[in-house]
Amino acid sequence: MLNEGDKEGKTMKITNKGKGGRPRNGHLELRGKNWWAQLTVTVDGESVRKWFNLNTDSKPVARRKMARLIKELANGGTPLELTEQAKRAEYFGEACERVHQQRVTDGVKVAKDEIARLRAYAMPDFGQIEVTKIASKHINAIYD
Q: What's the pTM value of the predicted model, to 2 decimals?
């Protein structure tokens, strides 16, 4: 973008220096048996670094939860909402979509058929159930 109002009649290039910056990725730390995520949130107009307990001892699960928190933060989530999001496990529907995207990225040819079957048969029954709470009774209900 060019500035047209320079005193000498010259145009000057306006840079975006100081705007935006690098994306906020967060930081993971193992404290005792639980993983914690440190994220920069805006509280009363000021950026503050805040810790969120992810309630998991698995680093891959902690990474997925932190990615979900970052996405929620980018969509305008408040620190209180982020605290609630950090506590809950991944829903079955979220896990299916995440795995589907990875299979598409890996070039699996039948990925489209797999997700179509899951959406038709599994998602209506327990798409909004946390993956840690799915039991054999849920699987048997789909077979019935």
A: 0.62
